[in-house]
Amino acid sequence: xxxxxxxxxxxxxxxxxxxxxxxxxxxxxxxxxxxxxxxxxxxxxxxxxxxxxxxxxxxxxxxxxxxxxxxxxxxxxxxxxxxxxxxxxxxxxxxxxxxxxxxxxxxxxxxxxxxxxxxxxxxxxxxxxxxxxxxxxxxxxxxxxxxxxxxxxxxxxxxxxxxxxxxxxxxxxxxxxxxxxxxxxxxxxxxxxxxxxxxxxxxxxxxxxxxxxxxxxxxxxxxxxxxxxxxxxxxxxxxxxxxxxxxxxxxxxxxxxxxxxxxxxxxxxxxxxxxxxxxxxxxxxxxxxxxxxxxxxxxxxxxxxxxxxxxxxxxxxxxxxxxxxxxxxxxxxxxxxxxxxxxxxxxx
Length: 348
Prior knowledge:
The structure is a single chain. The protein is built from two helices and 27 strands. The chain is mainly beta. The strands form seven sheets. A nine-stranded antiparallel sheet has the order 11-12-13-14-27-23-22-17-20, with no helix packed on it. The protein has a five-stranded antiparallel sheet with strand order 1-2-3-4-5. A five-stranded antiparallel sheet has the order 19-18-21-24-25. Strand 3 and strand 4 (38-44) form a beta hairpin. It starts with a strand and ends with a strand. 48% of the residues are buried.
């Protein structure tokens, strides 16, 4: 085990570094301190052949201008906020309308486009810190964020999030990695099998915005309580599939976010690679890469057409500031935001 470093370019005259974790089995993860972006995840298949299973770019410039959030940390508030505004302590805060009339993934810049301060804590741990000033993206309070990435010999990528604020604010942090367990350059992920440990989900409008309604997955395309191919129902004429242009929804995890628990697992029948997702969060956004296009080009010139990568973003529910029966993303001054998500890779 160990963490190596290499230069990864400059942003605003400041050097960016790529940090690579490699475990005893040759599997590795690369992270840069711009956006806290996971740029590579190399894990073996059934024959022991390594492949990079996360979508991304070769160069820093591509990450700076890119709009797909490949591998990035997302905040202050991941996912959507209706009308790009929320009211807290009788004050209404107006945010960037960067998703139609709504606010998405923290705003025009968000945490995925800022420089984080890196510290190597051990052979297996990289700490990134960022101070988000009061009023950044028009969110209240100065927020001090710490994210610790670790990667071990069991090929478990752990992301630990902590944040404190000097004024009541909202916080909902996640990572926006896109996965293709066949390899980032292998195109379609519809053959992947997926299981989500959730019997309910939050229904969305045609803006992909939770309406506040909680529905059962039973008897619908949203049912992943048993493993099934991602593509099995992705072209369904079900209203929710039409609204999301495929799968782009929040599932309400059976675990309830009370402790670190298994949220989802994916399998690639071709390579035998598997991925399990554990989290302390109450929800998970499964996004099947519906909005990728034939024009999206990534590492090594690979094409990333629609549904060539999928995301499993652990989170508080989107639009929770409007729907107060959802778990609250409010972080009070003096409290500590603390959540953990793990992606464990293996073979079957």
